[in-house]
């Protein structure tokens, strides 16, 4: 199928029904059409069919811990407020005044007895009920009780303190959606000596002029690392010559890890799951070897018992990609939210979590990891952002419409539909994402 | 020459090295125990209390410089060109900084990197900068540098050259 390529000049009202018959054909088992990354009409449909139906990670309960505290988050391109009421219950509300429609909360977080609109002073309870308007009598019958309460998101659920929103009532429950991937969230929380984690209020953000899916297709791609990050591997190698292997700082070790040989990745494991999720086994070799860490290990043994503590610390996973909204690193307590802004515009927001009761070095390591893996100033991330934009530019033209995603098509370590295991060099995680994409996008209901 | 004049000259030298792409020479201005910090939150005092745009020790500064100076590396090419304009140089309270002088300045940095996005290829950054300087012989070295961008809480696209 060689559908004419719709440029950015496709009119705003490009009819969805024209897309309808093409959508399913855009994803084959081992190829994807480049239009999936560049067509604004497809992006608009993703916001309702994918981001409107999948469980979207919005934040952690520690971001609104006190009564009346709230934070804002995006579900696709829609803004929502997560707010805690006086009884401690959390509510998810659309961040839009029901009168003239301005965004109610313009700050990332806040706290107050009610949510008030700055335009005409309409104010709402933490549960979203309209409490007061100026001159209520002037509205006569049109201001019926309940009619202008803030719209609530269909579902807001927590898994171990991590909050997910679903804009559809018909979605499978959160635990089904997370499946085996919940073990990465367990991995993060179980490392906290007091059993509690807390989000750092400072968020590290980068942005790029390309499609949101490119982040998901890059992060578990072990092959690109040695090529795309060649410059920082060579540069860190130079510094290693001067300082010696033992004296190398953790950030440089992470940059050098990208240069591991392909056989290492070929023997590592990639796990894919329904709904587009995946993770790969850790390759950074993240042990708690410093002597100062022995007290931390003892703390975890006291909490979990020695056997489970050992199991918790043994987990050495690299990134878990929770499609389509977030990426997770349990060992370095970093969660990143991928925010689609437009078909060719994306933001990534990085959050570091503090393990309550853990020594300061643990948080320091996490901060170093988050900086290196999330900052637009990071030599590694700068490479990735450059490539995302070149991909977006390149996929806008040319005779060839189909992007292959066939690497490792027939290589499996274990064939289990709920939890398939592949060599970490496989593009299975991309195929898996695109199959999930296809199944959300071709369902018109 | 007054000390303030000497400090001004030194900050001008640092800007000159960056603007002429001499990143290795720029890295040499930094002490072995240095910290180069671009925080997100202007109120933050402990560099390890939260994530940051940049939190470099000497090794990371060297790696950055090395990456930018070696030609034909895929993503840093074409190289960025910058103009660092430094002004409003004043002495600040040294506090508990392990340095001889703490110097505040205002930075306006124009960065150009050809990416074929037209005028969007040129960006402007503005920041309050604080240097912790140590006297070594007749010259200064940088033990600490903090760059507080006016838009530090914004999402940034790839930044090629240091501030």
Quaternary organisation of the protein chains: heterodimer
Pair with the most extensive interface?
A-B, 52 and 36 residues
Low-confidence stretches of chain A: 1-14
The dominant shape of chain A is: globular
Summing up helix and strand content along with how strands pair, one would put the structural category of chain B as: alpha+beta
Q: If you average the pLDDT of chain A, what whole number results?
A: 91
- The helix fraction of chain B, in percent, is 10-25%
Task: Work out the strand percent of chain B.
Answer: 35-45%
Radius of gyration of chain A: 23 Å
Tally of alpha and pi helices of chain A: 15
Q: Mind summarizing the main beta sheet of chain B?
A: 6 strands, mixed
Task: Write out the strand line-up for the largest beta sheet of chain B, numbering strands in chain order.
Answer: 2-1-6-5-4-3
Q: Largest sheet of chain A, described in full?
A: 9 strands, antiparallel
Using DSSP, what is the number of strands of chain A?
21
The dominant shape of chain B is globular
CA distance, first residue to last residue of chain B: 27 Å
Portion in helices of chain A: 25-40%
The succession of helices and strands of chain B, N to C, reads HHEEHEEEE
What's the β-strand tally of chain B? 6
- The termini of chain A sit apart by 26 Å
List the helices and strands and how they pair.
The complex is a heterodimer of chains A (445) and B (163).
Chain A: H1 16-23, E1 31-33, H2 35-38, H3 40-49, E2 56-60, E3 69-75, E4 78-84, E5 90-94, E6 109-111, E7 115-116, E8 123-124, E9 130-132, E10 155-159, E11 162-166, H4 174-178, H5 182-190, E12 197-199, E13 204-208, H6 213-219, H7 222-228, H8 230-243, H9 250-257, H10 262-267, E14 269-272, E15 278-281, H11 294-304, H12 306-314, E16 317-322, E17 326-329, E18 334-342, E19 345-355, H13 360-374, H14 379-394, E20 402-404, E21 420-423, H15 428-441
Antiparallel strand pairs in A: 1-20, 2-11, 3-4, 3-6, 4-5, 7-8, 8-9, 10-11, 12-19, 13-19, 14-15, 14-21, 15-16, 16-17, 17-18, 18-19
Helix pairs in contact in A: 8-9, 11-12
Chain B: H1 3-19, H2 23-28, E1 30-38, E2 54-56, H3 58-69, E3 81-92, E4 101-112, E5 122-136, E6 139-149
């Amino acid at each position: 199928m060689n559908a004419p390529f719709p440029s950015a000049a496709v009119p705003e009202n490009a009819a969805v029904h024209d897309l309808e018959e093409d959508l399913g054909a855009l994803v084959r088992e081992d190829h994807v059409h480049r239009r999936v990354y560049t067509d604004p009409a497809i992006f608009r449909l993703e916001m309702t069919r994918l981001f409107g139906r999948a469980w979207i990670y919005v934040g952690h309960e520690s971001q609104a811990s006190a009564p009346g505290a709230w934070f804002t988050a995006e579900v696709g391109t829609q803004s929502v407020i997560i707010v805690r009421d006086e009884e401690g219950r959390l509510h998810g509300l659309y961040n839009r005044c029901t009168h003239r429609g301005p965004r109610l909360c313009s700050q990332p977080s806040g706290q107050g007895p009610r949510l008030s609109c700055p335009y005409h002073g309409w104010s709402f309870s933490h549960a979203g009920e309209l409490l007061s308007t100026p001159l209520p009598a002037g509205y006569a019958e049109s201001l019926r009780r309940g009619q202008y309460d803030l719209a609530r998101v269909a579902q807001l659920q927590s898994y171990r303190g991590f909050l997910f929103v679903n804009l559809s009532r018909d979605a499978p429950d959160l635990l089904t959606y997370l499946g085996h991937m919940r073990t990465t969230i367990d991995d993060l929380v179980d490392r906290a000596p007091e059993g509690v984690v807390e989000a750092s209020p400072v968020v590290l953000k980068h942005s790029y002029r390309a499609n949101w899916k490119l982040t998901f297709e890059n992060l578990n791609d072990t092959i690109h690392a040695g090529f795309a990050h060649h410059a920082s591997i060579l540069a860190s190698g130079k510094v290693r010559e001067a300082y010696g292997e033992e004296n190398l700082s953790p950030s440089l070790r992470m940059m050098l890890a990208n240069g591991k040989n392909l056989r290492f990745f070929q023997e590592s494991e990639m796990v894919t799951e329904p709904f587009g999720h995946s993770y790969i086994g850790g390759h950074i070799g993240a042990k708690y070897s410093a002597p100062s860490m022995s007290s931390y290990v003892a703390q975890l043994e006291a909490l979990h018992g020695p056997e489970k503590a050992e199991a918790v610390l043994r987990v050495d996973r690299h990134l878990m990609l929770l499609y389509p909204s977030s990426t997770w690193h349990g060992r370095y307590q970093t969660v990143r939210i991928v925010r689609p802004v437009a078909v060719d515009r994306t933001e990534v927001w990085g959050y570091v979590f503090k393990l309550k009761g853990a020594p300061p070095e643990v948080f320091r390591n996490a901060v170093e990891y988050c900086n290196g893996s999330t900052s637009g100033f990071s030599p590694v991330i700068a490479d990735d952002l450059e490539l995302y934009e070149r991909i977006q530019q390149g996929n806008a033209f040319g005779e060839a419409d189909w992007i292959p995603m066939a690497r490792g098509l027939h290589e499996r370590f274990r064939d289990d539909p709920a939890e398939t295991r592949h060599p970490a060099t496989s593009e299975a995680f991309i195929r898996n994402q695109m199959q999930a994409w296809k199944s959300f996008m071709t369902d018109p209901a | 020459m007054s000390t303030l004049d000497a400090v001004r000259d030194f900050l001008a030298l640092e800007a000159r090295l960056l603007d002429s792409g001499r990143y290795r020479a720029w890295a040499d201005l930094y002490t072995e125990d240095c910290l180069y910090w671009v925080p997100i939150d202007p109120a933050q005092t402990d560099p390890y209390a939260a994530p940051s745009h940049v939190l470099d020790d000497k090794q990371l500064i060297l790696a950055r410089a090395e990456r930018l100076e070696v030609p034909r590396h895929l993503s840093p090419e074409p190289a960025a060109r910058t103009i660092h304009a430094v002004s409003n140089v004043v002495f600040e309270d040294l506090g508990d900084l392990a340095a001889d002088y703490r110097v505040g300045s205002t930075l306006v940095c124009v960065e150009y990197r050809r990416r074929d996005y037209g005028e969007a290829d040129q960006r402007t950054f503005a920041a309050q900068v604080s240097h912790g300087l140590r006297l070594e012989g007749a010259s200064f070295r940088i033990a600490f540098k903090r760059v507080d961008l006016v838009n530090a809480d914004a999402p940034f696209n790839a930044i090629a050259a240091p501030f």
